[in-house]
Design goal:
Blueprint lengths: L3 H4 L14 E3 L16 E6 L6 E3 L18 H12 L4 E3 L7 H12 L6 E6 L10 H14 L4 E6 L5 H13 L3 E8 L5 H10 L4 E5 L11 H8 L2 E5 L6 H5 L17 H10 L4 E4 L6 H8 L9 H11 L22 H12 L1
Parallel strand pairs: 4-5, 5-6, 6-7, 7-8, 8-9, 9-10
Antiparallel strand pairs: 1-2, 2-3
């Protein structure tokens, strides 16, 4: 699993940098010839500390891929199929995401893409005592079993939990060949300083951070530090967990969106994120196959330049509620009924 170029349908980017714009997926790789135009130009980015070149839109799975056992999941299989057919390759998950790992592993195996997709996973473990690595080792073992993977492409310390122990442990896993890349994550603004400090140490391959047209604080320190130290940037919550779409519900796109090829609000918001040249991949999540199609369309065609990005922000600032979007609940109007929701309901009932 060490050679992404041979097995994952992406391209060898000799001399390419994280500032790459739009390049062609290699025509020689047999799995590039997917339905849905996977041989068209894709916006891709190179992991600075490796040779891997990734399409700029990935697939998140928090809440969306969590279902109770026995529930219908045809729609999620179709989301995965369309994602792959459109040229998407990076799928992000975690043991904390309920049944997401199991579903991704089964869907990828059924579609014949398990050994080709780029899996981003996480570890959230403390151990029974300081420096006890047994829970983390168990987490890695279970993730490999659920995902049906011999090796995890990217392993991240989830939300900086036990980070002083987990990052050195992940370096050991990388040396042992059990993972290929490592990094840290967070999504809450109060932890951005700590996240930046870890990036500035320079021994991470990837940082995953909350970044969107509404939440731009990562631009202040984290993203510049990542660019300076050759750390890839993966973006969680690029659509603010459906809150951006709720904010613009019923509104037409501004006319200037045509200038960079955005035909939907999804493309508008996602193109803003990936037009930051230091961003490697954005990870929107959805349960709706049609919404998936809108999301992946953002990684084709033109991107807004710096002046246009400012114009996009200025436009959003005219919409009531934009400035306070971060104070509103996640997933407005949506109801996800997975094992996470079951557990949360059970805890509330005991209160």
């Amino acid at each position: 699993m060490s050679n992404l170029i041979d097995r994952r349908t992406l391209i060898q980017a000799t001399g390419a940098s994280v500032f790459a714009g739009s390049v062609k997926v290699a025509q020689a790789a047999p799995t590039t010839r997917q339905s849905g135009g996977a041989t068209d130009d894709l916006i891709v980015r190179k992991i600075p500390k490796g040779e891997d070149v990734l399409p700029a839109i990935g697939l998140g799975t928090f809440i969306t891929f969590d279902l109770v056992p026995g529930a219908r999941r045809d729609h999620l299989l179709e989301v995965t199929r369309r994602f792959w057919a459109a040229g998407g390759r990076v799928i992000d998950t975690s043991p904390l995401y309920g049944m997401a790992e199991v579903n991704i592993g089964q869907f990828a195996t059924a579609l014949g893409i398990n050994d080709k997709m780029f899996v981003s996973n996480k570890v959230w473990a403390t151990g029974e005592y300081l420096a006890d690595d047994r829970q983390a080792e168990d987490s890695l073992r279970l993730s490999r079993e659920r995902l049906w993977r011999d090796k995890i492409d990217l392993m991240l310390c989830h939300s900086l939990v036990n980070v002083d122990i987990i990052v050195p442990l992940m370096h050991a896993w990388k040396k042992e060949g059990r993972i290929r890349f490592l990094g840290v994550t967070h999504y809450e603004l109060p932890y951005f300083e700590a996240l930046a400090q870890w990036v500035e140490k320079g021994n991470l391959d990837v940082v995953q951070v909350h970044y969107s047209i509404a939440t731009r604080q990562a631009e202040e320190r984290i993203i510049p530090a990542a660019a300076d130290r050759g750390t890839a940037v993966a973006v969680n919550m690029p659509l603010e967990k459906a809150r951006l779409h709720k904010l613009v519900e019923g509104r037409p796109l501004p006319d200037f969106a045509k200038e960079f090829g955005a035909e939907t609000w999804s493309a508008f918001f996602l193109k803003w994120v990936i037009s930051n040249p230091a961003v490697t991949v954005a990870l929107p999540a959805t349960t709706n196959p049609d919404h998936l199609t809108e999301n992946v369309a953002a990684m084709r065609g033109r991107l807004p330049d710096a002046a246009m990005r400012k114009r996009m922000v200025s436009y959003m600032e005219t919409i009531p509620g934009f400035a306070t979007l971060g104070n509103t609940p996640w997933y407005p109007g949506k109801n996800y009924l997975g094992v996470i929701a079951q557990g949360q309901a059970a805890i509330r009932s005991r209160g």
